[in-house]
Design brief:
236 residues; alpha/beta; Rossmann fold; 7-stranded mixed sheet; two-stranded antiparallel ribbon; 8 helices; 9 strands
């Protein structure tokens, strides 16, 4: 009897990237340090969340690959120590942890190594930054608005006071992919822009999401829903 199909998503708080797969009947395993004990959401009777840090995930990952036919490995390694925007604090980071960069890159390589070891298509998401210079250049780059057309015209944003509907905002994002991952076709929508008193234009994301709070960081890193739908459509 063939194994049931599944996807694995690492460093994924919202689970939004897996929603199209779960809705289509795939079992979804979502790992993130902000999760508590594994539990299931109402819309996701096929989705299991696993907490703890990456060093504790080995057993759950082994069980997932043993029991399921894993179709995709998705990864969103924390970008705090990898994004170009964080370079201004690199001296303080190095003083606090001389291995901070190696530790951050190890989480990127973890996603790659899981995909390669199991010969499974994989995708690693991060902004432009140190992954480019310390590993390799990305395979693809996009903005959330590039895939906004996968969402309905009457779409409602999950953060309506911050992000516009249909992912109509710009945020340059890089992807490192392998083992046959298919980059989906774009269906762009016009991004919303905000203008300051000097006439400079800003993305909705950067206009309303400054600061260092955990909530702010989580919203900034939330997977664009149109992109999630597009990846599923191209790879399922």
């Amino acid at each position: 009897m063939p194994k049931p199909k599944a996807v694995i998503s690492l460093f994924d708080l919202t689970g939004q990237m897996c929603k199209p797969w779960a809705d289509a009947g795939y079992q979804c395993f979502i790992f993130d340090s902000q999760h508590g004990e594994a539990y299931r959401w109402a819309w996701q009777d096929r989705t299991t969340r696993v907490g703890g840090d990456a060093s504790t995930w080995g057993e759950a990952l082994a069980q997932a690959f043993a029991a399921y036919d894993v179709q995709m490995v998705l990864g969103f390694p924390p970008c705090t120590d990898l994004a170009t925007s964080g370079n201004r604090w690199k001296a303080a980071k190095a003083e606090a942890n001389p291995n901070y960069l190696a530790d951050a890159l190890a989480l990127v390589y973890l996603v790659r190594d899981i995909g390669e070891a199991h010969k499974t298509p994989y995708m690693i998401e991060n902004p432009i930054g140190l992954v480019n210079s310390h590993w390799r250049k990305p395979d693809h780059m996009f903005h959330p608005c590039d895939f906004g057309g996968y969402l309905p015209e009457d779409d409602t944003s999950p953060y309506p006071d911050i992000l516009p509907a249909r992912d109509a905002y710009a945020k340059k994002t890089c992807l490192w992919t392998g083992n046959g991952f298919v980059m989906p076709a774009k269906r762009p929508v016009e991004p919303e822009k905000y203008q300051d008193r000097n006439g400079l234009n800003y993305s909705a994301l950067h206009w309303k999401l400054g600061g260092k709070s955990l909530r702010t960081k989580n919203i900034r890193s939330a997977t664009p829903r149109g992109f999630a739908k597009a990846v599923f459509a191209a790879n399922s």
